């Protein structure tokens, strides 16, 4: 029997409150650390764009407080990235009471893999998608049209993509976990592969800018991650089934 069944609803709320407070505290600490390096962090974030800009071109800010608030948002973004392992750990520990005892030894690997996939997705967006996407957008410049990207717009654009790629790369872990819990099966994943591919392109169209290059650059990794998810679901489902048959 799961311990989750023995806990009253108020205990779940109290546990959730503690987990949220810890997560917010981790983000706050990450924000303070990041703010001390805000200029360097923004330069790192803007490097893929600067690399494809014409010599002499620079980012601009069009309002007096724009640079200040942009640096605050940059600090929050990197603070969130720094706190991501803590947030993921708190999430999985909140889920832990709903697991069987023989499944809880998987929590630490899950936390590690969650962080790994999230950071891997963000790095994929930064090193692969950003250069191709920015080169595509700047390709519309002409002798009479000159791009003047603003700090605020670039931060909103890039942070949205980084978080989007980080989240979508969690797909294998989420599907494997759902399979382990018995909520989905390998047969279900295989039979609905074509619908999943359609959803990937729809999600890419929503999460990315309206250009084909960026959308395909998100949809293709999702298709690969889906196949990895099926493999992970098959492995963990087999292990669980064998153990249940032994205990029976």
Q: Could you walk me through the main structural features you see in this protein, from its secondary elements to its overall organization?
A:
Helix content is 76%, strand content 0%. The two termini are 15 Å apart. The radius of gyration is 22 Å and the shape is flat. By secondary structure, it is mainly alpha-helical. The protein is built from nine helices and no strands.
In short:
Helix content is 76%, strand content 0%.
Topology:
Blueprint: H1 9-35, H2 38-52, H3 66-95, H4 107-138, H5 151-168, H6 171-180, H7 186-191, H8 193-207, H9 212-247
Give the N-terminus to C-terminus distance in angstroms. 15 Å
Total beta-strand segments: 0
Question: What class do helices, strands and sheet pairing give?
Answer: mainly alpha
What proportion of the residues form beta strands (DSSP E)?
under 5%
Number of helices: 9
- Helices and strands, in N-to-C order? HHHHHHHHH
Residue windows where pLDDT falls under 50 for at least 5 positions? 239-245
Main sheet specs? none
Overall spatial form: flat
Rg (CA only): 22 Å
If you average the pLDDT, what whole number results? Answer: 86
Query: Helix coverage percent of residues?
Result: over 70%
Index terms:
76% helix; 9 helices; 248 residues
């Amino acid at each position: 029997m799961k311990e989750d069944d023995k806990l009253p609803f108020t205990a779940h709320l109290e546990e959730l409150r503690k987990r949220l407070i810890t997560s917010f505290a981790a983000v706050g600490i990450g924000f303070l650390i990041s703010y001390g390096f805000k200029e360097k962090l923004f330069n790192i974030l803007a490097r893929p764009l600067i690399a494809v800009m014409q010599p002499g071109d620079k980012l601009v800010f069009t309002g007096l407080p724009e640079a200040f608030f942009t640096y605050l948002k940059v600090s929050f973004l990197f603070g969130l990235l720094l706190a991501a392992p803590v947030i993921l750990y708190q999430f999985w520990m909140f889920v832990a009471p709903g697991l069987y005892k023989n499944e809880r030894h998987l929590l630490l690997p899950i936390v590690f893999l969650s962080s790994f996939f999230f950071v891997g997705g963000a790095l994929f967006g930064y090193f692969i998608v950003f250069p191709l996407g920015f080169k595509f957008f700047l390709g519309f410049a002409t002798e009479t049209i000159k791009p003047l990207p603003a700090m605020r717009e670039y931060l909103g654009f890039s942070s949205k993509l980084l978080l989007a790629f980080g989240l979508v790369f969690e797909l294998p872990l989420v599907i494997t976990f759902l399979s382990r819990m018995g909520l989905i099966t390998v047969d279900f994943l295989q039979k609905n592969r074509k619908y999943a591919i359609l959803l990937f392109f729809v999600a890419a169209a929503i999460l990315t800018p309206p250009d084909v290059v960026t959308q395909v650059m998100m949809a293709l990794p999702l298709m690969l991650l889906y196949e990895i998810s099926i493999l992970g679901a098959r492995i963990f489902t087999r292990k669980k089934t064998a153990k249940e048959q032994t205990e029976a």
